[in-house]
Write a sequence for this structure.
């Protein structure tokens, strides 16, 4: 079963707890958890519901691969030949 | 079907900056603006499909390690010199994409000359100028872009513009130049500005890809640790304090009005280069004598004195002797800031085998033109070696060593008696050759005749060589 889209995944081991994604999220579906990762940072988490796939958090995050946003593929109308 | 917005392909899979269990994270501090900028560049490189022909020049600063992250060609340059290195990369690799990634200390202070002139020449490069108003890597010192009144470790009472000048607006300066096609200042504070930055970076890179030349994107970015602020507050500070002084806008966009420049192909003909340099002819002053080469005993010579004694020239002259007879030769001058009125010395290695290192750590011969040189380098001579001492300036005998041979030559007196004070170095060289018999003294004379331009000088130097040779013969040979 494919997981539902849109959604956001945050890899806790790669999060430095800067909170920038939480601030940028327009839907307010990210939060700083009390969980502490191996570096000692409190990590950001997704509430599990409400993501619209806007990608704001992806661009807000300074780490290359910590955040991945999955959204429905936009179907482009192809010009007829 | 789903679309994924994840780690851009412009990044390498694993970052080996810190060997360990976590090769997926950068070395940047939490909330650092560099990470955001990196992501936008990596994404643009992948989307424009230019990774394979991009060379990113890392500066000095926190981004010194950019080469650990980007999946493209990488070079790390000296502080501020990224545009100069980029110039070379761009010119010698026509059609490549050059990104000069620089910070404000790098670009606005030590590298001011490089960036201004690279921009003025319209080199094919995109400069990503990350401005956080501080020297972040070294612990938060004042940079050229530090705001008035801003407290840093070197401006504990705040930047005083009467003393340190005004913060420099680099984009505005660059935009006044004729050649750049695209100059814009953006910020990576919030999504709106990040998206504008994304657009600017893509436009700049695309313009270079299309052959328009020089583009410049200044990005206001936070340094939470350097500013001693939380990441979120640091981004707010950019909006509140930096943007009023560094307005976010496009300063120049000439892409529509100009036409792409044709790619200049550089195809140097190796034969032509050899011809121009004049190294195509195997012409030597002395006829090749294979038995001389085969029987040559390696010479490791250190010549030392004070600046002005002709120490380096004596070294090159000896080096020429080696080259003109077909030996392998290295000559390495060694002097620091103390050269001005201080000591100068050079290392010469002559061998019939390949020379591994040009350094003379254990000299077979030391030529000491003055007392400090003898004191410093006398101990480095190999047991059984030779020390040629200028007895005009060194008083008494050298008693530190009893396992070396010392020649005491009044070099200054010999040279002065023939009216050419500067030729004391030739006296030194002659004494060494006469005693060691490494080369025939006549060869030195021939070399001087061939290499010196002024006829009167040749005569005087030859006279010095003759007189010194007589002196050595009288006192040390037999």
């Amino acid at each position: 079963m494919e997981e539902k889209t849109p959604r956001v995944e945050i890899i806790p081991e790669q999060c430095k707890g800067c909170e920038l994604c939480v601030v940028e999220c327009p839907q307010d579906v990210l939060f700083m958890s009390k969980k502490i990762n191996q570096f000692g940072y409190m990590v950001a988490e997704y509430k599990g519901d409400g993501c619209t796939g806007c990608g704001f958090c992806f661009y807000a995050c300074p780490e290359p691969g910590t955040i991945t946003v999955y959204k429905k593929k936009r179907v482009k109308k192809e010009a007829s030949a | 079907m789903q679309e994924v917005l994840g780690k851009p392909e412009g990044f390498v899979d694993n970052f080996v900056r810190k060997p360990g269990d976590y090769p997926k994270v950068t070395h940047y501090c939490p909330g650092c603006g560099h990470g955001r900028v990196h992501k936008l560049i990596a994404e643009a490189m992948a989307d424009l499909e230019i990774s394979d022909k991009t060379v990113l020049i890392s500066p000095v600063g926190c981004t010194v390690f950019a080469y650990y992250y980007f999946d493209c060609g990488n070079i790390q340059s000296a502080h501020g010199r990224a545009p100069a290195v980029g110039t070379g990369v761009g010119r010698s690799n026509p059609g490549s994409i050059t990104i000069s990634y620089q910070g404000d200390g790098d670009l606005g202070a030590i590298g001011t000359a490089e960036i201004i002139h690279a921009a003025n020449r319209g080199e094919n490069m995109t400069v990503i100028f990350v401005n956080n108003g501080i020297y972040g890597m070294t612990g938060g010192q004042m940079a050229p872009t530090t705001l008035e009144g801003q407290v840093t470790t070197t401006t504990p009472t705040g930047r005083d513009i009467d003393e340190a000048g005004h913060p420099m607006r680099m984009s505005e300066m660059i935009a006044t130049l004729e050649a750049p096609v695209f100059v814009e200042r953006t910020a990576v504070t919030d999504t709106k500005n990040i998206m504008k930055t994304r657009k600017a970076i893509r436009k700049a890179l695309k313009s270079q890809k299309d052959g328009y030349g020089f583009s410049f994107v200044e990005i206001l970015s936070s340094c939470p640790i350097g500013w001693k602020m939380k990441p979120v507050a640091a981004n707010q500070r950019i909006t509140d304090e930096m943007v009023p002084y560094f307005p976010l806008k496009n300063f120049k966009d000439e892409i529509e009005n100009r036409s792409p420049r044709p790619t200049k192909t550089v195809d140097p003909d190796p034969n032509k280069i050899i011809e121009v340099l004049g190294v195509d002819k195997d012409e030597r002053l002395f006829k090749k004598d294979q038995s001389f080469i085969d029987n040559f005993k390696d010479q490791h010579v250190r010549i030392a004195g004070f600046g002005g004694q002709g120490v380096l020239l004596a070294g090159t002259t000896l080096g020429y002797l080696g080259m003109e007879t077909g030996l392998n030769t290295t000559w390495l001058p060694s002097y620091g800031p103390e050269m001005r009125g201080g000591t100068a010395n050079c290392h010469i290695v002559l061998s019939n085998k390949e020379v591994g290192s040009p350094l003379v750590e254990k000299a077979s011969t030391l030529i000491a033109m003055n007392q400090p040189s003898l004191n410093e380098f006398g101990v480095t001579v190999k047991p059984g070696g030779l020390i040629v001492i200028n007895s005009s300036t060194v008083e008494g005998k050298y008693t530190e060593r009893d396992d070396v041979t010392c020649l005491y030559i009044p070099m200054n007196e010999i040279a002065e008696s023939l009216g050419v004070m500067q030729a004391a170095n030739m006296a030194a060289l002659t004494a060494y050759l006469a005693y060691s018999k490494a080369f025939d003294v006549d060869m030195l004379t021939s070399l001087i005749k061939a290499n010196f331009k002024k006829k009167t000088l040749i005569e005087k130097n030859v006279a010095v060589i003759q007189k010194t040779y007589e002196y050595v013969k009288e006192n040390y040979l037999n």
The CA atoms of residues 52 and 72 of chain B lie 6 Å apart. The mean pLDDT of chain B is 92. Chain B is about 35% helix and 20% strand. The first strand of chain B starts at residue 2 and ends at 5.
